[in-house]
Design a protein that fits this description.
Chains A, B: One of its GO terms (biological process) is tRNA nucleoside ribose methylation. The structure is a homodimer of 218-residue chains. Chain A is built from eight helices and eight strands; from the N terminus they run βαβαβαβαβαβαββαα. Chain A has 218 residues and is an alpha/beta fold. In chain A, the strands form two sheets. In chain A, strands 3-2-1-5-4-6 form a six-stranded parallel β-sheet. In chain A, strands 7-8 form a two-stranded antiparallel sheet. In chain A, β2, α2 and β3 form a beta-alpha-beta unit. The first copy, chain A, is globular. The interface between A and B is large, with 85 and 85 residues.
Chain lengths: 218, 218
């Protein structure tokens, strides 16, 4: 199965953060490609930065200024996430049988054509909430939760799950039993570092922070 | 089980949209209360507006300027969502046994105290993505997916899930078999209305749009 996420209707002047979250969710929840429309190099750059630091999970990061054409020429199944669609649980088993899936995530008003072009208009509940959440739940259902355990290729840092505080190791120093040699941030440390699972934590890491830096940046 | 979501570190000048998404996810994914810190009346107002239009799902919408005190005086279990925490799948069964759960969602850097105060630091995968997605997945795991089927109390509008386009009915006109009398938006309509499952769709509806308006606003 190959899954691409197409974010349409992105407004560079006001959607940067939400769209970045959409892209990061695509990456972290098992999509193979992320395509942004219209193009916004800053968002793509942020995603590439995350891939460089945390490892490669996406095969392609791209953009298009012809999103309708992109959808029309997609040689696979088209899924459009919308609160007006059919319950995800009623269609996910069928969708999971497909080879190539394009998941459309709208930003501003979604033109009528997308509803028509989509093979599946899928709702994650029928209440208004967030396209970020909708994409995460859709992919989580699609992969049955297995997406959370994918291991990235390369990159510089890995997190060792811990009860309190932060354990971050450099790639290559994880050690056979899960990080002993590379662990410099002691357990229970906490600190002011980027603990929140949000896009913002990425922002502070452009200078190639090691695990030591993670708790010390302000 | 009673679940509250506490959003901490909100920056009114730049987090309004993300925090609104967090609040809407809390509402749509089964939380009973949403507490914002620090206070930002505009975000709370938006949530109240959604509750008024789409029906009541939250029992409490509140804010606090003493978040640490709020956590310290919480007489229940404290969960902190962080990419450095333990895998959600390894702790969710235990958490599900608790009576009262406070879910902390950070925005900017999360102070060390929260890691210490939390009974569970929980990671939705150990990759950076989005606090909006993290909260959605956590609540989805907590409720085993049942949260998507909760019915709100009152409100003005209900969506009837549909294959293409939009079906929206006024509350009270749903009809016994699912909306026949109230359905004015015909199937296959699509249109430029707010189809995306995002907070933005809420914005255009302040004037009390009926289903007719839903597809016509620009």
């Amino acid at each position: 199965m190959k899954v691409y996420v197409l974010r349409i209707g992105h407004r560079p002047d006001r959607d940067k953060r939400i769209t970045t979250h959409v892209g990061l969710v695509a990456r972290a929840f098992g999509a193979h490609g992320f395509v942004l429309s219209p193009c916004d190099e800053k968002v793509l750059e942020k995603l590439r930065d995350v891939e460089e630091r945390w490892g490669r999970l996406l095969e392609e990061i791209a953009c298009t200024n012809s999103p309708l054409k992109y959808v029309k020429t997609w040689d696979g199944t088209v899924v459009h996430l919308t609160m007006y669609g059919l319950p995800v649980d009623s269609v996910i088993d069928e969708i999971r049988q497909k080879d190539k899936i394009l998941v459309i995530v709208g930003a501003e008003k979604v033109p009528r054509e997308y509803y028509e072009l989509a093979h599946y208009n899928v709702a994650i509940g029928n209440q208004p909430h967030s396209e970020v959440a909708a994409l995460a739940i859709f992919l989580d259902r699609l992969y049955g939760g297995a997406e959370l355990y994918r291991q990235p290729v390369g990159g510089k840092l890995r997190i060792i799950p811990t009860e309190k505080g932060k354990k971050v190791v450099k790639v290559g120093e994880e050690g056979p039993s899960g990080g002993a040699p590379g662990v410099r941030a002691e357990r229970g440390r906490g600190g002011r570092g980027e603990g929140v699972q949000g896009a913002d934590e990425v922002r502070g890491h452009k200078r190639g922070a090691t695990d030591r830096d993670l708790g010390d940046e302000t």
